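ASSEMBLY PREDICTION REQUEST
Request ID: AP-0331
Submitted by: J.K., bench scientist
Number of chains: two
Total residues: 707
Priority: normal
Notes: Please return the full assembly, not individual chains.
Input sequences:
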Amino acid sequence: MMGPVWEVAVYHFKREVFKKSYILTLLSLPLFLVFTIGLGQLATSALNNDIRIGVVDPGGFLQVLSIEGRQETAEIIIFNSKIEAEARLRAETDPLRVIYVLPANYPGNREVDMIYEDYPPSEAREYFSDILKTNLLAGQQEALRNRAIEGPLLTIKAISVNREFPVNNPSAELLIPLMLAVIYIFTIFPIAGIMVGALGDEKTNRTIEVVITSISPRTMISGKILAVSAIALLQVTIWIFFFVGAAWISGNWFDIVFFQDITVHWRDVVAIASLALPGFVFYGAALVMLGSLIDDSETLQQASGLVLIPLFLPIYVLPVILDQPDGLLAMVFSFLPITSVQTVGIQSLFMEVPSWRIATATGVSWLISLGMTWFAVRAFRVGMLRYGKRIRIGELFNRKQFAR
Amino acid sequence: MSVIDVSHLKKTFGDTVAVEDVSFEVRPGEIFGLLGPNGAGKTTTIRIALDIFKADSGDVKIFGGAMTEEKKKRIGYMPEERGLYQDIPLERCILYLAALKGVRKAEIGKRLEQYLERFDLAAHRKKKVKELSKGMQQKAQIISTVLHDPDLLIIDEPFSGLDPINTQLVRELMNDLRDRGTAVVMSTHQMNLVEELCDRIVLINKGTNILYGKLAEIRRDFSTGDVLVTTSDALPGVPGLIGHEHRNGKILLHIDHDTSPQQVLKSLLEKNVNIEKFELATPSLNEIFIQVVRSPEAQVGGK
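STATUS: Completed
Returned structure:
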């Protein structure tokens, strides 16, 4: 037979996950991404199809009008006369986006005039710049030419740590921990809503009074936190499956190199997962405590926003963490259940966070989270039926309130 | 052994004294009335007894000792502010609350069926609780309170929102439970139902006991010695009679303290008065309630 904690957890889990609002939340992020990326792709392809660059090149300098191994993002049309090109720029049908005028002595002075009516998109400017470089480097070896066109490559390598982060071209696998941390943040918000909503409901319809005469407050709170954590895990799992599927389709069906041959660093994934669990418990307990102390559901909703602010602490101090991913602040944040997942997600871009530190952080996070749960149970015990009566903090520490 | 034994309870919330000094015991197989005006401390007393609140001082014994998780399973509690999950089907709600009492559908399925039929809710079992009328929700709450067959039932205003037919159903249920040995603690303001159902009562005012004991004895204690006579004859003057008044087709005779009802009856019979009914005029619980709550002793905190 199921224990009462399990009974409460299963009830709340089933009650929440089959609600339309939860299913919508579950689908919101994937749908949002599909919509945004799809719209972006559509816009880009529409833009690319439309870009025509006119080049006035009386000296006949441009001999190569495409770059080997690269998709043409614009159509280049050569004009002998500037007047003819300008007429095309102002034409109503089939107009040019921009005209580049190369003087006859271009190889000597290396100056180009740009004529436009609306400032041209970066795709057009970058493409012409690369065409120009290709022609300037026409006599060089292919490898040298390609490297010069590629431009400077910046790789961040933190001193005394063991990971490199290529800024221009980060690999998908390096971004996985950060992505997991983002999913974690996006998960906490709806979960907070569910927790606050359930508590507010039970207080408003007075079900709480019936429930706690059947089971202990500890059992009730533990069951709720377990349910909320399971709901969070379900959400995370579904989102991860979605991202994995989307990455696989992008890499294999659409041949996007970024998503091909991704090697998952399971160590990082395990680290994030082991820190996320106490994180969920911590936030669940914090919200229970808040729900126990506040009667009014509107105030409760507002106050829950305050509880969630620490989620963004690592983002607020991002420059400091980026500057010193292994510094004191990052280390302290990685030990706290309110910030550990996000911090380790950022740190993992630049370093392999040592196992001992992950293990310690997980232990510390669990200790703090269980402490918070204990405190939440106390707050619930004191505040659960004190409608409209103020609760003094001292009462939470009054032993008499909890003695058998 | 008492089912509930409450002794000198005191509970304050900040500067507010909710319960000052309340004591009573509840025995198996009785219906016990926990009475008092609004704000007297009844609900706080119940919550302390159920271990929802901790008393500042005093002692509570449930089934002979401190409350435990096992003992909670032997208790059915229906608070005044009803507590059902509103957005789930009725049957699921009742079964979940029963599961928290440690009983499963397999064990109580038949009993649930019987209760749903008895309270005319069988056809509504799949409806969400919020779709039910107030009376239906009240009946559902009662079912959920008794479904696990508790040894102690604590119910606050069980008849509120019920029509006469459903009131009768609940009345019968409470009598059934008493006959089966269940201790029933009932808090209500409907004094006629207390008179009908309760064996013993405690009346609390301003957090303090002001009346406690068997209902019949309390009513007898509050009797003035006046008598009610039913007769079609004109009433002659008899020794010891200091006045009379007509009340609901009867005549209430006020008798002086030195004269007994038997002496008055004898005098009336000697004067050939045709007496259909002669009875002691005991005050109703409603009258006693008003009298003691308004008494000067009660105004300063009970006696």
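REVIEWER COMMENTS: Strands of chain A lie at 52-56, 75-79, 98-101, 113-115, 155-157, 164-166.
SIGN-OFF: pending second reviewer
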